[in-house]
Specification:
Number of strands: 18
CATH class of the largest domain: Alpha Beta
Number of domains: 2
Largest sheet: 6 strands, mixed
CATH topology of the largest domain: Aminopeptidase
GO biological process, one term: proteolysis
Number of helices: 13
InterPro entries: Cyt/Met_Dipeptidase, Peptidase_M20
Keywords: Hydrolase, Metal-binding, Protease
Protein name: Peptidase M20 dimerisation domain-containing protein
GO molecular function: metal ion binding; peptidase activity
Distance between the termini: 28 Å
Shape: globular
Length: 502
Amino acid sequence: MVYPHAYRTEHSETQTSNNAYGDYFLGSQSNQIKIQPQLLKILQTIDSMKEKLIENLGKAIKIKSIASDVHYRAEVKKMVTFMEDWLKELGMKYEVFNIGFYYVEGKKIRLPPVILATLGNDPNKKTLCAYGHLDVPHAEPSEWDTDPWNLTVKDGFLYGNGAGCGKGPLMCWLHALLAFKLNKMPLPVNFRFCIEMMQHKNSQGFLTFVNTKKQDFFNQIDFVAQVAGEWLGHKIPCIIYGTAGIVHMEITIEGDSSDSIKQDMENIFETIINARMEIVIPHYSDMVEQIGPDEEMIYANIREFDPKEIRESLPLFKRTWDRVRLLMHMWRLPSIFIDDIEECTCPNRDKKMIRRHFILKIVPRQTIDFTVEVVQKHIMSVIKKNNIKSKVNVKCVESVRPWVENHNSFNHQAAKRAFIQIYKVDPNLIREDTGRETTAIFDSALEKNLVILPIASKGSRLGRGNEHISTRCFQEATKMLAAYMFQLAQKPKKPRTVGAEK
C-alpha cells in the first residue's frame, strides 16, 4: 500500500538530491524559448485573424449537435457537413465512416459517424494525430445566463455550448492549420484528424472502430494529442499526463423485510470503507505503485492550487492536510464514492429490494478485472461470514481504465516547450481524478504516446451550463498548437524498428 506524506514508504529513498529528480526538474527552470522565424509568421497571422476566429467558433456553436438525442439527427448531419467544408478548405483528404448501430428506446439507430482526415504524407516527417469531438450535451435553459446556441462575448469570455469542450478545441486546430495555408507554408509534421460524435455518450462504437483502423490510418502515427480539460488556475497552463480509472458497481439486495435488507447493506459497506473513507477491502490496493521522490517533486512543483479554496468542503480529518497531500489523494490514490440507498419496486410484492451504487477510483497498475474480482469476492465472503440470508447481487455497471504517460517523453516535452514559447511560463504537470473513455481507447488500442492539452482556465464549466472560454485562451491555444507542431518536428524521423518503445 502507498503511504502518502512524507511520501516515503519502506521501499523508497529517505534522502534525495537534484540528480534523483531526473533531467526534467534540472531543465525546467527556463521560461524563454526562442520562436522560430516560420512560427513567428504563423503567430502574426493568427493575431490578425482574432475577430474571424471568434466568428468561426460562433458558426459552430449555432449547430445543435446533440448526438445522444435522436431528435437532433439533422443537426448532427449539419455538423458533419460543417466539418467537411473546413477539411475541403484546408485541402485535407478525408472520409466519413459509419461505425454501427445502437438502441434507443428499443429502436435500432445508426451511430453518428467518425471522420478521419489526412494532410501530408512525408516519410521524413513525424505524424501527429489530433483527436476531437463535435457533439455537445443538452443545454438546459435554466442553467444558462446566455443563449447556449449563440456565442456570446462577455467580459472577455466566450459563452456557448461547446465553446471550451469539443467545438472550441477543434476550431483551434482548424485555425492553426489555416494559418499555415494562408502563409503557403508546409506543416512541420504530417497531420491527421480523428473526429467522433459520441463523446458525451461514452464514445459508443469508437473502440471497435479504432481497432479496425489500426493497420491503416493509425499505423504510421507517432504521437496523439487531445485538447481537453482545464487548468488549475487562470495564469499557468497545464499538461495532463494521467487520468484515473473508474469502476462503477451496483449492489442489489432482495429479501422479505425492508429493515433487514437495509441492515444487510449497512453491514456490507462497513467492511468496505472505514470512518475516514479509506477502502479497507483486503488486497484492493496491492497493485498501486509506490510513491517515489520524483513523483513527490512533481506535486510539490504544482502552482495555482490553493487548499484554502476547498478546505471548508473537506471532511474534518482532511482539513489539516497540505496542498501536496491533497493533490495526491485527488489524483494519485484510490478512493470511493458511495451513493444513497434506492428502494426498488419488486415484481413480487411479497419481496423487498434495495439498490446502491458505488464508484471506485482506480489508478495506474490497478486493473478493472482485478478490482471487480476483489470487490465481488470480498462481498461474498462478508455474506458468508455474517450469514446473510437475503439475495445479494453485485455487478460492474461500467468502467474506464486508468491512464498515465511518461511526462519526460518527447511528445510531452514538445508540448511543454510550445507552452513556454506562447505563455512564457512552465506548465503545470497534472493528472485528472476522473476517467476519459477516449484516452483509454487510444492508449489500449494504439499504444501510441498521448498528451492531453487543456486550453481552458479554471472554472470554465466544460460540458455544463454557462460553459465558456476566455478570448485570450482561445487565441493563445491556437498559437500553442502551431508551436507544438513545430516542436514535434525537432526530432528527426527514424526508420521504424520492431519492438520500438512507445
